[in-house]
Write a structure and sequence with these properties.
nine-stranded mixed beta sheet; Aminopeptidase; 306 residues; alpha+beta; binds coenzyme A
């Protein structure tokens, strides 16, 4: 740490965007931000709080950026450090810890008892810290963060993604199951289904449903909704797939594969060459059905405040 370095923290302004992105993209090179994505991550966050979006300045100008969010989860407030980067050439001078300390204090003042890094679903950039950011994997434990489990993102080529195969669709049809694209009038029934899975999927899928056309596909038997798959509900424009889910009793019938193929065809039609399947649970499902492979690993971290 440079003893006489003057670090000034202030709230982020939209006019900082170009400098911020330039510095961010050099330092957080596995997570490049473009204007639309920065806007989605920062200003479109449902819990955006400008007092938790901070830039650090020194005599060299804008050299650091950190963003926190406080989310209501059941009956408690959970804090997240959503984004943090210090410009290349300005690291290890206490800038990252100054940003983090202030964000933690402000999260605590909003009632958060814990802070997690990344993973601020439904609007998040990464489900933890990419393990290739070695300074970050040392920084967070030094700041009192405990490692949780690891998470992974997978990637799949969209080269041959032209929608579900005729055989797969015929098998579903012979079981009385039909598949179609969702519309906004499906929202209520879809939300009922999403609640069965718990978690934070409602907001993410609502974003997919708002796209034109809706980036959600549904499977029904008669009027009964059995499964869904969504894409473009977070990190829009990056080829982001998910979430997806099939009700417990309808699993094993091939619904998931068909709905997945519908979404991948959407992403291919949007011009993506690859789909990102984030924060994956069933790695084998995606590996087997679409040849997806794990391409990023993340260390999850949590700190108990106070
Ligand atoms: C993680 C990051 C934000 C830290 O910012 P910083 O301004 O360098 O952090 P500080 O100077 O406040 O703290 C430095 C402390 O972190 C740890 N640390 C940081 N870099 C380290 C390295 N290369 N090796 C070992 N420890 C390191 C040490 O504990 C260090 O203290 P020390 O210098 O007294 O040993 C910065 O490395 C960065 O921007 N990385 C790229 C983006 C990123 O990984 N973001 C996090 C993902 S959410």
């Amino acid at each position: 740490m440079q003893p006489n370095l003057q670090i000034h923290l202030r709230t982020l302004h939209r006019r900082d965007a170009a400098t911020l992105m330039e510095r961010w993209n050099q330092s957080a090179s596995f997570d490049p931000l473009a204007p639309g994505l920065l806007d989605e991550k920062v200003w479109q966050d449902p819990d955006h709080d400008k007092e938790l979006c901070l830039v650090a300045e020194t005599s060299a100008g804008l050299v650091g950026f950190g963003m926190g969010v406080a989310r209501q989860a059941d009956d408690q407030i959970v804090g997240f450090l959503k984004l943090l980067a210090v410009a290349t050439g300005h690291q290890r001078q206490g800038i990252g810890s100054a940003l983090l300390r202030t964000i933690e204090q402000r999260l605590a003042a909003r009632g958060a008892k814990t802070v997690r890094v990344g993973e601020s679903a439904p609007n998040y950039l990464t489900p933890g810290v990419d393990v290739r950011y070695q300074p970050a994997t040392r920084f967070f434990p030094a700041q009192g963060y405990q490692p949780l489990s690891e998470s992974v993102n997978m990637i799949a080529s969209l080269e041959n993604s032209r929608g579900p195969g005729a055989g797969d669709l015929a098998r579903l049809e012979s079981a009385g199951i039909h598949v179609r694209r969702a519309t906004t009038s499906d929202a209520r029934e879809l939300n009922d289904l999403l609640r069965q899975f718990g978690g934070t999927w409602e907001a993410e899928v609502a974003c997919s449903l708002r796209q034109a056309p809706a980036r959600v596909h549904l499977a029904f038997r008669g009027d009964e909704l059995l499964g869904f798959a969504a894409c473009e509900g977070n990190n829009v424009g990056t080829g982001w797939f998910g979430p997806m889910g099939t009700t417990q009793t309808a699993r094993g019938l091939g619904i998931g594969k068909v709905l997945l193929d519908c979404c991948l065809a959407d992403l291919a039609a949007l011009g993506h060459e690859q789909a990102i399947i984030p924060w994956v649970g069933p790695v084998g499902f995606y590996a087997e059905h679409i040849g997806a492979r794990v391409y990023r690993k993340f260390q999850r971290f949590e700190k108990v405040l106070g």
